[in-house]
Amino acid sequence: MYRLIKQVGKARRGEFVTPHGIIQMPAFMNVATAGAIKGAVSALDLKELKCQVQLCNTYHLHLRPGDETVKKLGGLHAFTRWQGPILTDSGGFQVFSLAKLRNIKEEGVTFASHIDGHRIFMGPEESMRIQSNLGSTIAMAFDECMENPAEYNYARASCQRTVRWLYRCKEEHDRLNALPDTVNPKQMLWGINQGSTYEDLRIENMREIRKLDLDGYAIGGLAVGEPAEEMYRIIEAVEPEMPADKPRYLMGVGTPVNILEAVKRGVDIFDCVMPSRNARHGHAFTWEGCRNLMNAKYELDTLPLDPTCDCPACRNFSRAYIHHLFKSGEMLAMRLCVMHNIYFYNTLLERIRAALDNDQFDAFFEENVAKLGKRI
């Protein structure tokens, strides 16, 4: 259940009650693709890093170790030791981005595993069964992720297929939740809005999928290479059609600036691999901008990554030491930088929530939108 606490313009301050805890929104979901944050960060670290939600990947967990294996081990919560909310994506994005060979039909998609090439079929029912076995808090509907830009007629036909798939997802999800051996019988289902960069298709698709009265709704198919202004334009077109009493999820976004801009346009929740991926290459997000720890200027720099940050890395280690660890190829470099970036992102959302609570969001936005996009 979503509760809107306060609204400032389009920006929303709310909370979402789930079987595994309350998510304070706006929120960031930390991406644990195969059940772990890349960079040697475990579920036990995440509480200290202000994490509220962990996102795990249906496609990857289906391939390894296998969703039935995860079910036998008690589901993702028992398997990973993360006890808060977990969202699983549908696997659709990976099917379309990783599989070099795929065949899309009304039934679903046949594709080759990116690990060993063996043929796999996934459709709405298969995605729901995998996610039910994983026992996540929130399951995402199976959709087609189009290339962007997509030709208009193809995008229209794809949207219509995604709607038909959503009805099949809902029917199978309801059936699975009612089974006596289901890992999480209170698992929620969120739908995904598609339509490429065509406003009319996005609006039509949102009007169709909201008829199912799902637990939440996502905007998919953005942040895949289109200019940021295109993404903001689509959010502005779709937002008025999204139910006001349900969470709004912008998938795969993004930079700190993207998050500020999307919150301003009414988005509640985000996920992105950027904090961990950039960290593994030595890029630390700070309140002054992005810092590249590979640069020689940090060789003798005794300051923490961000003097205003109290994450475990900043409390204990210097830029010089982390610079040295990266240059030496030490795994600890990635772990410290990943922990810092996750903490930074979760603190950013925490400060956004505080700014909304205190009627200071516009000032917070103006103070940080240019600064956070800088490369130091």
TrEMBL record:
Binding site for Zn(2+): 309, 311, 314, 340
Catalysis: reaction(s): 7-aminomethyl-7-carbaguanine + guanosine(34) in tRNA = 7-aminomethyl-7-carbaguanosine(34) in tRNA + guanine
Note accompanying the cofactor annotation: Binds 1 zinc ion per subunit.
Cofactor(s), names only, from the UniProt record: Zn(2+)
Uppermost EC category: transferase
Catalytic residues of the enzyme: 89, 271
Region (RNA binding): 252-258
HAMAP family: Q_tRNA_Tgt (MF_00168)
Homology family: Belongs to the queuine tRNA-ribosyltransferase family.
PANTHER family the record matches: QUEUINE TRNA-RIBOSYLTRANSFERASE
Subunit details: Homodimer. Within each dimer, one monomer is responsible for RNA recognition and catalysis, while the other monomer binds to the replacement base PreQ1.
Protein name: Queuine tRNA-ribosyltransferase
